[in-house]
Amino acid sequence: AQSVTQLGSHVSVSEGALVLLRCNYSSSVPPYLFWYVQYPNQGLQLLLKYTSAATLVKGINGFEAEFKKSETSFHLTKPSAHMSDAAEYFCAVSDWSGKSTFGDGTTLTVKP
Amino acid sequence: EPEVTQTPSHQVTQMGQEVILRCVPISNHLYFYWYRQILGQKVEFLVSFYNNEISEKSEIFDDQFSVERPDGSNFTLKIRSTKLEDSAMYFCASSYWTGADTQYFGPGTRLTVL
């Protein structure tokens, strides 16, 4: 069985500050890991994914994530937050079948 | 850029009624999924579909739910007798392969059961 834990349901940062959203996963097989962003009243947009290639994955909008097998983590970072980054962020793990298991989500607030 | 579309955007129904949620996946994709998100909660997998068959389904996907690909473009989710707890946002997604392949999500249908 696979699962995802996102630490911190709400994260607040100042504009220009580092964004760090935490995700830990549990999977019995090598995982495929994803980060999605959801803006209000919209669907899920893929930010980036890890598929067993490079452990440091770069995504859209300046986000990146590092896969650390020893820590079973896949934390999302962005060096400098923009107001437009305010949204809900979901970490997800997928198995070979494509079934994705999502974390509870983290709401990112960016203060001016 | 191709995208997944869903209709309607919002559906209101009475408890016990049947609803059909419609999705048009990206045209060359082979795998199709339904997820739901109850307000304020996480996104939950319902079912995956490939080659006109259900590949996998969750415990949520009981006998009240069914999926169908009635033609070459649409992918539908039917709830036979809606319950209050079926109120949620329902997302359709599609991908070309499974596993590592990116799933493209539609904008969702908000289902409200009264």
Overview of the molecule:
The complex is a heterodimer of chains A (112) and B (114). Chain A is mostly beta strands. Chain A contains no helices and eleven strands. In chain A, strands 2, 4, 5, 9, 10 and 11 form a six-stranded mixed β-sheet that branches. In chain A, strands 1-3-8-7-6 form a five-stranded antiparallel β-sheet, with no helix packed on it. Chain B has no helices and eleven strands. The radius of gyration of chain B is 13 Å and the shape is globular. Chains A and B meet through strand 5, strand 9 and strand 10 of A and strand 4, strand 5, strand 9 and strand 10 of B.
Oligomer: heterodimer
The helix/strand class of chain B is: mainly beta
pLDDT < 50 runs, ≥5 residues of chain A: none
Number of strands of chain B: 11
Tell me roughly what share of residues is in helical segments of chain A. Answer: under 10%
As a percent range, the share of strand residues of chain B is over 45%
Distance between the termini of chain B: 37 Å
Largest interface, chains and sizes: A-B, 24 and 27 residues
SSE order of chain B, as H and E?
A: EEEEEEEEEEE
Q: Supply Rg of chain A.
A: 13 Å
Helix content of chain B: under 10%
Helix/strand layout:
The complex is a heterodimer of chains A (112) and B (114).
Chain A: E1 3-7, E2 10-14, E3 19-26, E4 32-38, E5 44-50, E6 56-58, E7 64-68, E8 73-78, E9 87-94, E10 100-102, E11 106-111
Chain B: E1 5-7, E2 10-13, E3 19-24, E4 31-37, E5 43-50, E6 53-57, E7 65-68, E8 75-79, E9 88-95, E10 104-105, E11 109-113
Parallel strand pairs in B: 2-11
Antiparallel strand pairs in B: 1-3, 3-8, 4-5, 4-9, 5-6, 7-8, 9-10, 9-11
